[in-house]
Amino acid sequence: MNNTISDGGKPQPVFSNLNAIAVLVGIVIGIGIFRLPPIVASNAGSELEFIAFWVAGGLISLIGALCYAELAAAYPDAGGEYHFLSRSFGSSVGFLFSWGRMTVIQTGSIALAGFILGDYASRLLDLGSYSSSIYAAVTVVGLTGLNLWGTNPSKKTQNLVTSTIVIVLLLAAVAGISQGASAEVATSTPGAGSERAIGAAMIFVLLTYGGWNEASYLSGELKNVKQNMVKVLALGIGIITLIYVLVNYAYLHVLGLEGLRNAEAVGADLTSSILGSEGVFLLSFVVIIAALSTANATIITGARTNYALGRDFSLLKFLGVWSPRHNTPVNALLVQGGIALLLVVLGSVTEDSVSTMVDYTAPVFWFFLMLTGISLFVFRFRNHEKELPYSVPLYPVTPILFILTCIYMLYSSLMFTGIGALLGVGILLVGVPVLIWARK
Predict the structure, then answer these.
(1) Rounded to the nearest 5 degrees, what angle is found at the Cα of 399, between the Cα atoms of 80 and 230?
(2) Which end of the chain is least crowded, N or C, by CB within 10 Å?
(3) Helix axes 397-415, 47-74, angle to 10 degrees
(4) Chain centroid offset of residue 234 CA
């Protein structure tokens, strides 16, 4: 391994707080809220427990965000978690994280967003037996092209789609709550309230909240990062939690817990109850916008890790090219898009492409999130006399709670998911011989 700076430019502070919040909210609020609440409801013993899951998801995300705010404010870098892990545990861990993010976490999330977009786009125009996969591939190619055009057009697009989806979700929540309440009485679900049920529910709740950590990848491009990162994370997660609780309360109010458990397309059921059968077509457009928002924001942040990997490892130095003209990591975007397209092909031959992508990404995601939480203690130990721009409140309780949550979610993602999880772990382990090769 040789540390090298191979790029022709470097990241510039072009993201305002509003831009960064738009990316954060855009990654998190998207496809999950239209598909995953019925699964969560199936593992809830009551309506109160169902809502409590979503509140808990927001609190857990906020705890993690406060830890990330300290790391990002003290060590801002376009590499985000890669930068934190490399500085705390060494370049080998940083390499494996970037490898897992490039081949599993981000690319799997991009493919997941593409497949869900494809499912709803196919309701408007079916392209045949592989319709969803075709739409997913077009999404990956189109949004990668947008980001190659430059950071400025991609962030403007992100602001537009994020604003649209937030407004639509708030309007849907208000309209749903204003409707007459469901008269259904929920029946008990076998296993609801058990450890397995709670673990399974929180996998999908925190998947729906997933992506708040992506703001750390903008720390190298956020204006006045040492003061603004905690504002971006706290405000972004506050907005997300409010929207999720309102929307899920609207689901309960209109459908009831039992109706929610049995809903195949919960967003369509809610929209249909408000606007009639025509609302299903409107929902398809809304989900397409949400998927575009999630995929574009994930592409923006994912490419930054690939750039940092190429910047630091000579074997992959072609990834560390930053275009000064477009202020974007060109080769990192191309490689990320290519891997995402391969995962689209993989998903197209599985029985349930969406579940496969969820299983594929979850264990690797929670493992490295846990290590990032531990890195905060490493930095505190090494630099105990250093004055921090921002300190996580209630230290060490806050980061300990976050790490314990990550451990539990790692356990759940291995015990309560399918074979896709083992495939994701296997792809991560392939990074070990690649690391050995890089060192040689």
Answers:
(1) 50
(2) C
(3) 120
(4) 16
Q: How many CB atoms lie within 10 A of CB 274?
A: 17
Q: CA–CA separation, 85 vs 439, rounded Å? A: 18
Kindly report the length of the chain: 440
Alpha-carbon span 206 to 392, nearest angstrom = 21
3-class SS string, the chain = CCCCCCCCCCCCCCECHHHHHHHHHHHHCCCHHHHCHHHHHHCCCCHHHHHHHHHHHHHHHHHHHHHHHHHHHHCCCCCCHHHHHHHHHCHHHHHHHHHHHHHHHHHHHHHHHHHHHHHHHHHHCCCCCCHHHHHHHHHHHHHHHHHHHCHHHHHHHHHHHHHHHHHHHHHHHHHHHHCCCCCCCCCCCCCCCCHHHHHHHHHHHHHHHCCHHHHHHHCCCECCHHHHHHHHHHHHHHHHHHHHHHHHHHHHHHHHHHHHHCCCCHHHHHHHHHHCCHHHHHHHHHHHHHHHHHHHHHHHHHHHHHHHHHHHCHHHHHHHCCECCCCECHHHHHHHHHHHHHHHHHHHCCCCHHHHHHHHHHHHHHHHHHHHHHHHHHHHHHCCCCCCCCCCCCCCHHHHHHHHHHHHHHHHHHHCCCHHHHHHHHHHHHHHHHHHHHHC
Q: What is the full per-residue pLDDT of the chain (440 aa) written as tens digits?
A: 444 434 445 666 667 778 778 777 877 776 778 777 888 888 888 889 999 999 999 999 989 888 988 888 888 776 678 888 989 999 899 899 989 988 998 888 888 888 888 887 887 888 888 888 899 999 999 888 888 887 677 767 777 777 777 787 777 777 767 765 554 545 555 555 566 778 778 888 888 888 787 766 666 667 776 777 788 888 888 889 998 998 888 888 888 888 888 775 666 666 666 666 666 677 777 778 878 877 887 888 778 778 877 877 777 888 877 777 767 788 888 889 999 999 888 888 776 677 778 788 889 999 999 999 999 999 999 887 677 777 888 889 999 999 999 998 898 888 766 677 888 899 999 999 988 887 77
Tokens 């190298």 sit on residue: 220
178: tokens are 């204003």
Give the separation between CA 174 and CA 400, rounded to whole angstroms: 37
Could you give the CA distance from residue 109 to residue 98 in angstroms, rounded to a whole number?
15
Q: Are 144 and 339 a contacting pair, CB within 8 Å?
A: no
Side chain identity at 250, as an amino acid letter?
Answer: A
Tokens of 221: 């491009």
